[in-house]
Amino acid sequence: MRVVGSGVVDLELPPEHRLLKDAIRDFLEREVEPIVARHERERRFPAEIVRRIGELGWLGIPYPEDEGGAGMDTLAYAVAIEEIARTWGSLALIVAAHTSLGCGPLHLFGSAAQKARFLVPMAAGQMLGAYGLTEPGAGSDAGATRTTARFEDGGWVLDGTKRFITNAGHARTYVVAARTGDRPDGSAEVSAFIVPADTPGFAVGRLEEKMGLHASATGELHFDRCRIPAENLLGERGGGFPIFLQVLDGGRISIAALALGLAQAALDAATAYARERQQFGRPIGTFEGVAFMVADMATEIAAARGLVYRAAWLKDRGRPYRLEAAQAKLFASEVASRATNAAVQIHGGYGYVEEYRVERYLRDAKLTEIGEGTSQIQRLVIARQILNLRVI
Ligand SMILES: Cc1cc2nc3c(=O)[nH]c(=O)nc-3n(C[C@H](O)[C@H](O)[C@H](O)COP(=O)(O)OP(=O)(O)OC[C@H]3O[C@@H](n4cnc5c(N)ncnc54)[C@H](O)[C@@H]3O)c2cc1C
Hints:
392 residues; alpha+beta; four-stranded mixed beta sheet; binds flavin-adenine dinucleotide
């Protein structure tokens, strides 16, 4: 254990994780920090920074080297996302969606040929990936998937629309869920497919104007008689749900890490401001009303960090972690919303203007309570694991 900058007691990381964290921090401070505000204001995707991050090996941190990755673990990946989010939430979301959701299904379920063709260049940072599960009518209820895939003349033909897809328009490979039939009980048979962006019949639709995370792209995917070869089926036919559930379990750790990074950024900013800003002839941090907000932020962030690192640690040891990933995501995202809100409050009027960036942290943090399963869905996942009942 050791004490860091703003008085937070940090968990001691293994040396290689600390090296990675320091390298990311150094890169972000030098090359990224100066361009964040402009990209956010202009809602501009940071293509050049993403390319640099790929070159540095940070687009495939938890995957083996023979799959194009850096050969590190989930803890390293969580630390990286936390550190990136501390500077730029949008960039952290781009990297997390690519790594967990784009590469994750291929790592877990891809054949040797699929890994060689898609995962290796993605994890090596040469092309970006994305993941399309959500549809206009299927959000929390992924079973309501309407996009269809029909087997025709030796290939799959996809029709339908996906919504809210991170990295839309910038990814070159999309893993998508589509309905391949009905099961005997009437529920959807869902399968997973790999769709290269240059496939005829595939198009990126409208990009969203979001509340936060402005430099990340979130958009629609359209499939209009989009034909892909038979070998682009990922895993077994009808195996879509187990794939997506497993991928989301891992993805939740990265969204929790993203929330943690935003919360830490809010605490860092609030701490500095509470020490500097003078009112009534003294620093505002000397007023109990402000000091206790800082104390609560620091305490909750320490607890969230413990949950995030615990979920990563379990995953890295091959132990069950669905419950712990949901707990980490639920708690860290709600902490991020509270901490970023407190940071705005501590900044007073300055917190409400763009110049002081804490308003950006607050807008960005809200997404972490929604994406990859809302807080309500996390509570359902947690309750089901504990009660061993199907809570609805
Ligand atoms: C910026 C952004 C990026 C995203 N990136 C991706 C991506 O890359 N890929 C992808 O596939 N999706 C992505 N999503 C979609 C995201 O995962 C969904 O928005 C989310 O799962 C919620 O679905 P929904 O928006 O349809 O809300 P709904 O499911 O309609 O939920 C609306 C409300 O009802 C509540 N609710 C629903 N069901 C229940 C229940 N059973 N019990 C209690 N409450 C319930 C929800 O918690 C929520 O409060 C992204 C979304 C955003 C905003």
